[in-house]
Amino acid sequence: MLAPAVPKSWYLPSKPHKFCPGCGHGIVLKALGEVIDELQIQDQAIFGCDIGCSLLAWDFFACDSTQTHHGRTTPVMVGIKRSRPELTCIGYMGDGGGYSIGSQHLLNAAVRNEKVTLILVNNTNYGMTGGQMAPTTLPGQKTETSPYGRDPETTGYPTMGPEFLAELTPDSAYIARATVSKYKQLKKYLKSALKNQMEGNGFSFVEVLSTCPTNWRTNAQQSWNFLEDEMEKYFPVGELKNPLGKGDK
Amino acid sequence: MSLIRIALAGEGGQGVQSVAEILAEAAYNNNQQALYIPNFGLEQRGGVSIAFIQFSDVRIGAPKFHKADVVVALSERAVSRTSVYSGPETLFVYDSGFKVSPDELPREAKKIIGIPAIETANKELHPRVFNIIIMGAVIGLTKVVSFEAAKDALESKLAYKFEKNPSLRELNFKALEIGKQMGEKALQEGGAQNA
Amino acid sequence: MPRIIGNPKKSFVTGNETAAWACLVAGADMMFGYPITPQNEIMHYWTRLAPKHGRGFLQTEDELSAGFTVCGSVQCGKKAFTATAGPGNVLMQEPFGMAEAMRLPLLAIIQQRGGPSSGTVVYSQQEVTLTTFGGNGEGMRIVYSTASHQEIYDYTIKGFNVAWKYRFPVFILGDGYQAKMREPLEMYDPEDRGIEMIKPYPLIGLEGKISAGREPQHLCNIYSLEEELYEVVMKVAAEYEALEDTIVEYDEKYCNDADIIIVSHGVVSRAADDAVKALRAQGIKAGYFRPITLRPYPRKQLRAAIAKSGAKKLLIAESAYGQLDRLTKQEIFGENVKIENLFKPGVGIIDYDIISKVKSVL
User: Fold this and answer.
1) In sequence order, what E strands does chain A have?
2) What is the DSSP letter of C241?
3) 3 state SS of A132
4) How far apart, in Å, are the Cα atoms of C215 and each of C159, C207, C284?
5) Bond from prior residue into A16 cis (ω within 30 degrees of 0)
6) Which of the 8 DSSP states describes residue B152?
7) CATH hierarchy code of domain A15-241
């Protein structure tokens, strides 16, 4: 028997999805859908979307979901989790929403060890608004607001999200960085991040390195090269904290 | 009783706000209308602390007022800080031990009254009951609450302290009595000076 | 819901304590808040009361977070509230806007402090514009401006019901004076006054399994097409306007034959009330009009008061530089009255101020 082509937890009326060709979001959401199926949490999951490209996922799943504001997905998810701990709250955001406009929420949710799962897609730029420099833009990388390349002298170095969150959280938090180029690992990390919440351990966070051919102005090969050769070198992929032991059990 | 407005002012830690609260609560417990509001600006720590209290038979309007019927200044700084609340109908009360120059005293007042509260507290009672003497003086000057009502209010507010040390009860009640007499006397004598 | 107060209880308390008790007896499940003077004691009392009654609290990292956590809590079916003031109210306009757009029945208690900017921690009526029309929206909110502790108590209870019945965010607009002063209050359990508290219900996290056929709930808050948004806003506006007559509240005295009507709101209306009585005693025909709801504004009622009195003048008295004034003018545009004002931004107004002003303009 053939495996079903799409996860059961996908919301079919919203397909095909609305992301650009070559965008990594679809890969993250496919992995997340499979994990939701495997953990059988479709009925208890609340999926919250930030504004930015991540908002295009708002009706991606056949799960209850809500849209929020730029950077405010974290507090909305925290409000829900604090009110209804039986729900599994998944916040979905980009690097701008998480590390810039919503950074105080991310930082403090981590410090308080809020029992939510946050997935942050890092594509080194603001996609929806037209390719501006993000906290994660690499040194020298050209964007609409760093047309001569990001200069760390004047704009700082890329935000190392999982690294700083690992510093802020107790050992019961789950912190990892995945990449859309390593699907099995991505899925494993997402699963652990959800299990960590479901077991009531604590804050769970996965940054996912992803592609943005539209704003990078790259073709398929160039996109993949930038992801694997530039981003993965700068942003080390792996688990920084895993209270569940050796990853997926 | 028509509306009576009182401003109590002193240094933080002198117990100005507690006295105001006890007085207002005593009036409330005796079925009067009362309204108490502290000043709570940035100056409340390290500045002059002021309590605004109003008593009436009918619902009280605005929480604050321009001119008080009675102003009590419990520190030298409080004298100049509160002179703004003193008008032609105001009894302005301060401690006769303060060194204040005449130009620091309010320009307008019905009477300016000096009472020896600090000296009496230090010599005859205990420095800590200074504020209770003042509370007594307010009652003596205004009759906003009866002596018995004030005692009841003190009892309920300080019950936990009295329980631990019953001699405190007597000390506080004595301070209240002495203060009340000071207030009544000041009123009869026509005050230390007229402005 | 178990009764909390039991026999009606008279007490001599601050407005902040009043607000916390009111939220408790109204059945509020959660408070999310961030410290800012002069509302802090609402949190202080709530954090002491809440655990004894199985209610929740979270001190968030800022007011943005407090507002958005309330939005989340309300979305999943909890009666949630927050309280703030001044710059905190500015930050909360973002989540309040989301509540307007998504029709989230949150309740917020605003204890106005002095402005602009950090202003004072004390008092003002300078958050009227912000609370009624703040945010990038159309002011689809319900704002009760209270004048006494009893009203803080009564309207907080009512506010939760209005929010959950009509799904518009509700604001209890107090001020630093009301927050900090002590005055008499009678506390009661709503059911003892025949008030049935509306049970909250979830918008997401619903009963029933999606895997067994329930439709998933996708709450939308951003639209691709202008026309989509237009339809949503027009629908909300129509629903809001249809409710105005039901929701509007006001108080009016001595307006039948008034030459001048004093319009004030909140704690200033207490001074206006005294002033009107004093003026009448002196033979001056002054009237009193107080919008209790600032949104929606009792425009028909004020127009009617002007018409029946034949008043030639209105005096708008407020502890702000023209916020009630602007609100009132836009609501009674076209009335043939001269509008005088008594603006005292950030300081209290007493009866004497109003009496003097009336005499100077008559």
Assistant:
1) 45-49, 64-67, 88-94, 117-122, 125-126, 132-133, 174-179, 204-209, 238-241
2) H
3) strand
4) 31, 11, 66
5) yes
6) H
7) 3.40.50.970
- Asked if C155 contacts C161 with a C-beta cutoff of 8 angstroms, the reply is no
Question: pLDDT of C44-87, one tens digit each?
Answer: 999 999 999 999 999 999 999 999 999 999 999 999 999 999 99
CATH of domain B4-189: 3.40.920.10
Please judge whether B64 and C350 are an interchain contact, meaning their C-beta atoms are less than 8 angstroms apart: yes
Which stretch of DSSP H or E encloses residue C57? strand C56-59
Question: Do chain C and chain B touch with ≥3 beta carbon pairs under 8 Å?
Answer: yes
Facing residues of A37 across strands? none
Q: What is the pLDDT of residues A135-157, one digit of tens each?
A: 999 999 999 999 999 999 999 99
Interface test with A, best of C63, C203, C210, C220 (most A CBs within 10 A): C210
So where are chain A's domains?
15-241
Q: E-strand spans in C69-214?
A: 80-84, 107-112, 142-145, 170-175, 182-187
Please give the structure tokens belonging to residue C228: 């989509």
> Could you say which DSSP state residue B47 is in?
S
> Do residues B51 and B38 lie in contact, with contact meaning Cβ atoms separated by under 8 Å?
yes
Is residue A48 within 8 Å of residue A76, measured between CB atoms?
Answer: yes
Q: Max Cα separation, chain C?
A: 76
- C68: nearest CB among A59, A72, A87: A72
Domains of chain B, by residue range, sit at 4-189
Single out the residue of C222, C77, C102, C217 nearest to residue A42, CA to CA: C217
Question: What would the two tokens of residue C8 be?
Answer: 């009606």
ipTM of the shown complex: 0.94
Q: Which domains does chain C have, with CATH numbers?
A: 9-193 (3.40.50.970), 251-361 (3.40.50.920)
Separation between Cα atoms, residue A141 and residue A132, nearest integer Å: 11
As a whole number of angstroms, the distance between CA A49 and CA A59 comes to: 9
For residue C89, the distance in angstroms to the closest alpha carbon of chain B comes to 19
Q: Which of C12, C184, C351 sits opposite B62 (nearest CB)?
A: C351
